[in-house]
Every structure is written in C-alpha cells, then in structure tokens.
Amino acid sequence: MSRMCAAVLKEVHRTITALLPCNFRGPGDPLRLLDVGCWDGSATVEYARRIKAEAYGIEIFEEQARAAGDRGVKVARLDLEIENFPWEPNTFDVVVANQVLEHLKNVWLPMSEIYRVLRPGGHAVLAVPNLASLHNRVMLALGMQPTSIRTFGPHVRGFTMAEFRRLVEYGGVFRVHETRGVGFYPLPAVLARFPARLFPSASHTVLLVAEKTAEAPGPWLCYLQEQRRDGIATYFERP
After folding, report:
1. In a domain, 237, yes or no
2. Is the pLDDT at 208 greater than 70, yes or no?
3. How far apart are the first and last CA of the chain?
4. Is the pLDDT at 239 greater than 60, yes or no?
5. Are 192 and 183 in contact (CB under 8 A)?
6. Binning pLDDT at 50, 70 and 90, where does residue 63 land?
7. What is the Cα–Cα distance from 109 to 83, expressed in whole angstroms?
8. What's the CA gap between 31 and 21, in Å, rounded?
9. Which domain holds residue 63?
10. 183 phi and psi angles, rounded to 5 deg
C-alpha cells in the first residue's frame, strides 16, 4: 500500500470516529456496535469507545480475529459472501463496514445481513473507494487502469458515489442522510479535506451514513432471487 493511500485510510478512520458521537444514540444502554471486516479490532475498539458501546466484529482471517478478540471485541469468523451473521434481527445500534464491500462479488448477502441485524432507527456507516475520483478519471482519460479496481489487485467491485448510494438505498429500507468524501489525490490527506467536502463525488473515498427506516425482507437478496426467476445466470448461488 502506498504512503498516500495509507494516509487516506487513516483519514477515513478519523472521519468515522468523529461522526459517531454526533449521530448515534440508542434507546438504552449499552449500545452495540458491529464492525464488519474488523481486522485486528483496533479501530473497532475506538469506534465503540466513542459511543460507549459494546464492540462486536466480523473477520475472516484467524490471526486478525484473534488479535481483535484479545482487544475485547466479540468476533465472529465467517465468509461474508456465503454465510449469515450469527446474531438475531435488530441486535445492533450501529454497523460499520469500512473498505469491505469493494472486495466482494456478492454484496447482496452482506447488505441484507447488515440491514437485518440493525435495529429500526439504527445506522450503518459504509465506506468504499470511489471509482469516479478525480485521479481515476484522469487515469481513464489517459487510457490507464483506475487504481480502485486493478486487475492485479484486491478489489473486485467499483463504486461511484451515486451508484453506491443507489445500492444502499435499494428497496427504500435505508435512508442516506449524510454523504462524505475523504481524500483528494494528489493532495496530502489534511489538505484534501476542503476539496473532498466541496466535491465529494470526485474524492478518493465515499462515506455514507444510512438509517434503517423500515422492517421488511432484505431487498438485495430479493433482487438476486428475481434475477434467478428470470433465468439470469449469476456468479453466486447460496448453498
């Protein structure tokens, strides 16, 4: 990872940490926060501390999950693309998924599960690299591959701000009430704060805060099922 990219990810973490106490209050104590893709739990613990919540996480890698558990995070080890979350509906007040969905072909199941385990009125904080960032637009204009979805890289999906919001609000069960842009290449992270706020759709990373506004079957899996009924082949079949 480049130094500039690492600085942007640090800035995304700072932004999420700053947003949490301003936006999230639960109906009672203690609050519960779930960090999807929690890695070693260091960020998870800080997020939970900011809103005085119990810290939960999901992580597929054993070593990192163990490290998160050592930090006091209640961790579930699972594959987001094929496994359901091991919690009852309406368990959490806040769900964070930072730099996760771009790594998944099957975003339908984790989006449905995030929605399912959030309580009504709970919030999801979701962040992904921006396919339409200024530097990606320049690279495409020059016939180069965008950095956010390289062939020899870990990302398998690319999202613009508008398309990411469309995914999150699909089916009308989430209402996005805050959008943020973070990072603005080639500026250093601190200097990028102003242009990222002014032109969020051209920023390095898109960050959305969405409120769960309805109780209904997860519309994302319903979409997948509709495609199957129409005879459209998909890359993903649940066992």
Report:
1. no
2. yes
3. 35
4. no
5. yes
6. very high
7. 8
8. 12
9. 3-229
10. 80, 145
Report residue 225 as tokens.
């099922």
Query: Can you tell me the distance from the alpha carbon of 42 to that of 93, in angstroms, rounded to the nearest whole number?
Result: 19
d(CA 203, CA 96): 20
How many structural domains compose the chain?
1
SS3 156: coil
> Who has greater pLDDT, 194 or 223?
194
Q: Please report, for the domain that includes residue 199, its CATH number.
A: 3.40.50.150
Please state, in angstroms and rounded to a whole number, the distance separating the CA atoms of residues 211 and 225: 25
Conformation bin of residue 139: beta by default, left when phi > 0, alpha when psi is -120 to 50: alpha
On whether residue 177 sits in a domain, the answer given is yes
In a domain, 149, yes or no: yes
What angle do helix axes 108-117 and 219-229 make, rounded to 10 degrees?
140
Q: Is the pTM higher than 0.85? A: yes
Has residue 148 been placed in a domain? yes
